[in-house]
Write a structure and sequence with these properties.
three-stranded antiparallel beta sheet, globular, Arc Repressor Mutant, subunit A, alpha+beta, about 240 residues, DNA-binding, homodimer, Chorismate lyase, seven-stranded antiparallel beta sheet
DNA sequence: GAGTGGTCTAGACCACCCT
DNA sequence: GGGTGGTCTAGACCACTCT
């Protein structure tokens, strides 16, 4: 078999890459919501006119990228961003015993504004684009330890600003309400001295060394969906990275 | 074909996992030195009595783990820890323009001693085990910016202490002289205030916020081969992590 | 027991590198 | 042009899940 039957809009690259793109498109279009099973390998192979092995390779790479979850004997499912899962994947603070810190978040300020120059640059936005700004304090066993300043492109999250309450795990909301799937993050980490404002918010003396984490979040299509600047007072805890 | 012909000492798991273990064993045994080509897929398949697809799966996972490098049309090679490559993979400091910082290292102190309690704990060593301690300053465009304190199990690196000069990229030496292949690292990052000693060594005022990077390095067999504690004064640079 | 993904095989052609 | 890894197919059996 030398000619294949695939959806329109597929151009270059090997066959499994096109299969992968088709599956990804259907997930982001909402055809297969998070947590549901997608068709079996054989069904997809028949429908797309390719062999099961080719479908398998596409699904395997999507599984490695944590877009899909495969369960032997059961089926292949769209990965679900439950609050617990989001914390596990994207919150890299561990205490010195090696167990992950699970923060709460305090009541939050949220507002819309025209993006500043820095915000436009970090999120790659047009002039005069609007952003949603969220500020909050995160607590650890009742004590403030992290100050978050979150910036989102308003165009991607219409109506978010009117939410009565911003949840502790935003990425869960992104996926379920806006069908925006968080794919990966890039973080720049530095050490800074606490400013007067941060010192007050975190209840530490001014000048205390804080860890500054500057994160850009990308969705499955490679779009920048969030800029987050966190300042943490890590007392008996640390940022963890595996390479 | 239901019965396979494999080397002795292979027990559980799927066939490709056993093939992978065999290839890994030959690499660490030094049969195929870094930079050389291993046999072709067809040759390995014949030799081990399995199909080419099974060999391919084994080599693909080793390639994903950066143990092998595949070059289409040419062959499959044992990954080489050249100084440039080591820097690229394991040195996570970038300047704010996004280009990687390439440090030099100053003349170095090196000595052997009985491991302290902390060293035994971090490297999982027996009582009375010996360690090699290395201290050095790293410079960036001529200015000191990072203080390194490196601890190695003496049993793994006999004779290292007598080296006339410790190279800037230790991991290259590990691979070429001791056949110890660095596989991955785990890093704990915190913000600390410069002590008097660090302030002097880095030419900053005492109390300056520094980034502390506490790294454990593992080899291909999962052994802990290094404990490294770095303190960095990041002026216009940052630690970078992708998740 | 029926159905799913996981492993393994055998063979074909393609894209690329080298000489 | 010969040899390498990369892709694709077709079919078999295994391990597991669900009901």
């Amino acid at each position: 078999m030398r000619k294949h039957r695939l959806e329109p809009g597929d151009t270059a690259g090997p066959l499994y890459a096109r299969v992968k793109a088709i599956v990804l498109a259907r997930i982001t279009a909402g055809d297969w919501p998070p947590g549901t099973a997608i068709p079996t390998e054989m069904e997809l192979a028949r429908e797309l006119g390719v062999s099961q092995g080719t479908v398998r390779k596409a699904l395997d790479t999507l599984s490695a990228e944590q877009v899909l979850v495969r369960r032997q004997g059961s089926g292949t499912y769209v990965a679900e961003h439950t609050p617990a899962h989001v914390m596990f994947r994207f919150f890299n603070i561990y205490d010195d015993a090696g167990t992950q810190v699970l923060p709460d978040s305090q009541p939050t300020r949220i507002a819309v504004a025209v993006a500043s120059a820095a915000e436009r640059r970090r999120l790659v936005l047009e002039d005069a684009a609007k952003v949603i700004r969220i500020t909050r304090i995160r607590t650890r066993s009742g004590r403030a330890f992290m100050d978050d300043r979150i910036v989102l492109p308003e165009a991607l999250f219409p109506g978010l600003v009117d939410e009565p309450e911003v949840p502790n795990t935003l990425y869960d909301l992104f996926q379920k309400r806006y069908r925006i799937h968080v794919a990966h993050t890039e973080e720049q980490v530095t050490a800074v001295a606490a400013t007067a404002r941060l010192a007050e918010r975190l209840a530490v003396p001014p000048g205390t060394p804080l860890l500054a984490i500057d994160r850009i979040t990308y969705d499955l299509n490679g779009r920048r969906i969030e800029w987050r600047l966190s300042h943490a007072h890590l007392d008996g805890a640390h940022y963890f990275a595996r390479l």
